[in-house]
Write a structure and sequence with these properties.
The protein is mainly alpha-helical and 94 residues long. The chain has one domain. It has 2 helices and no strands.
Amino acid sequence: MSEIDNLILEHLRSMRGDIATIRDDIREMKSRLAALEGGMAGLKRDTAAQYGDIADQHTRIDRLTERIERLEKRLEIKEPLLMDYLTSRPLATN
């Protein structure tokens, strides 16, 4: 019975060591996953800020367009020069 007990204890010790190694690996993976999630959150925040900046630029362009159109009307320019320019330009694609 003693040999069987020793054999069982040896296997249990080996299993305990394997489980400890697995726990360490899982702990490391959790840490790395948390770092990835933080990086993704930063990217999302940066992207949202860029979209906000683009929206602000569009608003400014719209206001400038309106001002130029009013100037063209005041100066009685028959052809809307700004609109011709804006519609004749090819759009930039990314």
